[in-house]
TrEMBL record:
Catalysed conversion reaction: (4R,5S)-dethiobiotin + (sulfur carrier)-SH + 2 reduced [2Fe-2S]-[ferredoxin] + 2 S-adenosyl-L-methionine = (sulfur carrier)-H + biotin + 2 5'-deoxyadenosine + 2 L-methionine + 2 oxidized [2Fe-2S]-[ferredoxin]
Names of the cofactor(s): [4Fe-4S] cluster; [2Fe-2S] cluster
Positions of [2Fe-2S] cluster binding: C107, C138, C198, R270
Role played: Catalyzes the conversion of dethiobiotin (DTB) to biotin by the insertion of a sulfur atom into dethiobiotin via a radical-based mechanism.
Gene Ontology molecular function: any one: 4 iron, 4 sulfur cluster binding
The protein, known as: Biotin synthase
Gene (UniProt): bioB
Quaternary organization: Homodimer.
Pathway: Cofactor biosynthesis; biotin biosynthesis; biotin from 7,8-diaminononanoate: step 2/2
Taxon lineage: Bacteria, Bacillati, Bacillota, Clostridia, Lachnospirales
Entry EC no(s): 2.8.1.6
Transmembrane spans: none
Family: Belongs to the radical SAM superfamily. Biotin synthase family.
Entry keyword set: 2Fe-2S, 4Fe-4S, Biotin biosynthesis, Iron, Iron-sulfur, Metal-binding, S-adenosyl-L-methionine, Transferase
Length: 325
C-alpha cells in the first residue's frame, strides 16, 4: 500500500516527486481525506467562489502544428468549422455576455503557431474594444514574438494561455512540430513582460502518472495564475480518436486536480475539457478542489451552457458571481 504524506504537510506546497506520486496513488477509500486536504487550501485562497469562463474560438482550424489531440491541427481530418476570424458580432456578443452575467473571464482561442504583426494589430484592436467594458481577457495564442506580445499588452490583454500539455519526456509523443522547451521559453518571455499566465495540461493521452507529476512540478516552477487541467475528449479524425479513456475515472481525475491544488495552492485550478463527461454527479467533490470552470464549450467541443453551469455550482453550495473590473 502507498504511504500517504502526513496531514501536517497539508499546507506545504514543496512536496517531493515521490510524495506527489503517492498522492496520485491514493487508495480510493482515502480519496475524501485527500479532497479535504485540498479543500482547506481551496477555501483559504479562493473562498467559496467558482470562476466561470466563456471561451470564444476566434480563429479555427488550419494550424500548421501536429498536436495529436487537436481537431484544428493540419494532421486532423475532424469535421470542424474553419475560419480566420470569428465575426465581430459573435466576439463582442460573448464579451457582453461575460459582463452581463458577472463571469470571471472571457477566453479567446486562436488556432495557429505564428501570426503576422498585421494580424496581431487586428487582434489588438478587438482587445482594445473589449477592454472598454472592463472584461478580464485571456488569449490562447501559440507563439508570439516579444514585439507582438508587447502590442497585445499595450492593448490591455491581461493574461495569456499557453499550456505545457504534458511532461517534457512525453511531449514528443503528442507533438513533433515544436518542443516542450519552446513552450516553457514562451511562457517565461510572457511572464517577463508582466502577463498573467494560464498554463496546464491534458490528462489521458497515454502518459504515465510520473508524466502527470512531472508536468505539475514544472507548472509549480512556472507558478502560473491559472492551471487548466483538461481530460481528453477523443475527437474523430485526430490521432487520439480511439484512445482508451477508461482510466479517466472521477477518482483519478480528482486525485490529479487535488495534486495540482496542493502543489500550486494559490492558483486558479480549473477543471476544463471533460468536466461534463468525466465528473458528472461529482460536482460537489470537484468544486471542493477546483475553483474555475468553463461554461461555453472547448474550442471544437460543446460545453454545458451557462444556466446548467450556474445551477451545478449553486447546488454544490458555491457562488460564482464576481464584479467585473
Ligand atoms: S493545440 Fe494549438 S498549436 Fe497545437 S494543433 Fe491545435 S491549434 Fe495548433
Amino acid at each position: 500500500m502507498t504511504t500517504q504524506p502526513k496531514t501536517t504537510e497539508a499546507e506545504n506546497p514543496y512536496l517531493t516527486r515521490e510524495e506527489a506520486l503517492a498522492i496520485l496513488n491514493t487508495p480510493d477509500d482515502q480519496l475524501d481525506e485527500l479532497i479535504a486536504r485540498a479543500e482547506k487550501l481551496r477555501r483559504k485562497y479562493k473562498g467559496d467562489n467558482v470562476g466561470i469562463h466563456i471561451l470564444t474560438n476566434a480563429r479555427s482550424g488550419n494550424c500548421s502544428q501536429d498536436c495529436a489531440y487537436c481537431a484544428q491541427s493540419c494532421r486532423s481530418s475532424a469535421d470542424i468549422e474553419k475560419y480566420k476570424w470569428v465575426s465581430d458580432e459573435k466576439l463582442y456578443r460573448d464579451n457582453d455576455f461575460v459582463n452581463k452575467n458577472h463571469l470571471a473571464r472571457h477566453c479567446i482561442g486562436l488556432s495557429g503557431m505564428k501570426f503576422t504583426d498585421a494580424e496581431i494589430e487586428e487582434l489588438a484592436a478587438k482587445i482594445r474594444k473589449m477592454k472598454e467594458t472592463g472584461t478580464h481577457l485571456c488569449c490562447s495564442i501559440g507563439f508570439l514574438t516579444e514585439k507582438q506580445a508587447r502590442m497585445l499588452k499595450e492593448a490591455g490583454l491581461d493574461r495569456i494561455n499557453h499550456n505545457l500539455n504534458s511532461s517534457r519526456a512525453f511531449y514528443p509523443n503528442i507533438c513533433s512540430t515544436h518542443t516542450f522547451d519552446q513552450r516553457v521559453a514562451n511562457i517565461k518571455m510572457l511572464q517577463g513582460l508582466g502577463y498573467e499566465i494560464c498554463s496546464g495540461g491534458i490528462i489521458g493521452m497515454g502518459e504515465s502518472k510520473e508524466d502527470v507529476v512531472d508536468m505539475l512540478l514544472e507548472l509549480r516552477e512556472i507558478n502560473p495564475e491559472a492551471i487548466p487541467i483538461n481530460f481528453l475528449l477523443p475527437i474523430e479524425g485526430t490521432p487520439l480518436a480511439h484512445k482508451d479513456t477508461s482510466g479517466l475515472t472521477p477518482e483519478y481525475g480528482l486525485k490529479v486536480l487535488a495534486l495540482a491544488r496542493l502543489l500550486v495552492p494559490q492558483a486558479d485550478i480549473r477543471c476544463a475539457a471533460g468536466r461534463e463527461v468525466y465528473f458528472k454527479g461529482e460536482e460537489k467533490r470537484l468544486l471542493s478542489v477546483v475553483n474555475s470552470i468553463f461554461a461555453s464549450g472547448y474550442l471544437t467541443e460543446d460545453g454545458q451552457g451557462i444556466e446548467d453551469t450556474i445551477r451545478v455550482i449553486e447546488d454544490a453550495g458555491f457562488t460564482y458571481e464576481i464584479e467585473s473590473a
